Amino acid sequence: MSRMLKKAWRPLVALAAAAVAVVGTATNTQAQPSGFTPEHYNQIQFGMTVEQALAAGGGPQSCWATESSLECFAKDPLNGPHASFEFTRAGQLSRKWHEGIFEVKTPSITLAQYDKVAVGMTEEQLWLAVSKDSCVLKGEAYPFYPSKQRYEREYMCAAEPGPHAPRAWFWFTNGALTDKHKSILT
């Protein structure tokens, strides 16, 4: 490359670097959503629009919204408790799920309790085998909303406190257990 061509590119490279620095600074100074609470989660109901759910979730201070989803954060969006909401093509809430918004009251599930649970059981049968206080409802959905012919629920049960504690998950469709999974449960 000739010297003149190299010199001609220098101002363009400097301008591009300055633009990247300005955009990076603007991005880093924007307020990150936080402040989403269990009360906000409970106020967001099936059938709501994105706008209604955003208002119930605490607004842009707590949530990010798109046409078909809403992401809400209790603290840091990268590491803290958060909730996700999905909407139908018609714009109605059909699925809600959270990570850490609700805590297990009394973590106590054991491998022996987990092994008593079998696919096909009802939720009532699950609670005969596992303490309800060791579990939390993680998510629920009406995948074909507004039809309520199919209803899905996911429970997470913990053996002890902490984000990396031994756990079990149970998935129900229309009240019957369809799948289960465990992680480091003893």
From TrEMBL:
Keyword Signal annotated: yes
Tagged with keyword Signal: yes
Organism superkingdom: Bacteria
Annotated source species: Streptomyces jumonjinensis
Signal peptide, first to last residue: 1-31
Pfam families assigned: BLIP
SUPFAM superfamilies xrefs: beta-lactamase-inhibitor protein, BLIP
Keyword field: Signal
Entry protein name: BLIP family protein
